[in-house]
Amino acid sequence: MLIVRWLIVFSMLCSTALYAAENDLQDLRRDDGNPNEWRLVFNNKTQKIKTYFKKEDKKRVRSFRMEAELDAPLSTVANVEFDADNYKNWYYQVEESKLLKIVSDTEFYTYIRYNSPGGLPDRDTVFQTVIKPYSKKTGYMMMLIKNKDDYIMPSNGITRIAVLDMVAKFTPIGTQKTLMEIEGYMDPGGFAPMWAVNLVQRTTPLTTIIGLQRMLLLPRYSSPTYNNPFKYTE
């Protein structure tokens, strides 16, 4: 079953890569419709995953959006999302991740270093995560993520990400499922050719969601004894 699962994932990624290549050529040749509207990039009805992008005025790269129905309760999803030291095991192309500081039970700082494609310099960033816990009034948990470049200096040979700004919303569906909606913008900083930006933007959302789904299957994150220093619900 494990082999079959990975064959399915590999097939999804290959199909996405071919689809992305065709659309990247179209993006370079023309801009159909309203450039400020979300454009559907990937839609898998079986896995219940959708990814989008849109071009916005005065931004050099596209904003992104992704939606996925996760087969886990909010508590398990929160345990994975708050485990910053483990991001390197499921975030797309993350070579290093570590929790830098716990400010409170609803705020922390994280360092991440990304492996860039095509021999380009690796990227890194320090970002602040602010948690808005689930409440009956809102009906969801939210994470606000923004880069904080002045927290630590970048390492030699690594390009600091210019902008990272994301909002992640997690809404329980019954007791055993969670709807995840993420919208954001990331400017990789430095020299970033069009092909590299397109590759990362089209590949990152899907592969990251697949990685998250894999983490949600680990028993430790669903264990009632799991030590989570952060608050996901009021």
From TrEMBL:
GO terms for molecular function: lipid binding. Gene3D superfamilies: 3.30.530.20. The keyword Membrane does not apply. The keyword Phosphoprotein does not apply. It comes from the Bacteria. SUPFAM superfamilies: Bet v1-like. Residues 22-140 form the START domain. Keywords: Signal. Residues 1-20 form the signal peptide. This is START domain-containing protein. It comes from Agitococcus lubricus. The lineage of its organism: Bacteria, Pseudomonadati, Pseudomonadota, Gammaproteobacteria, Moraxellales.
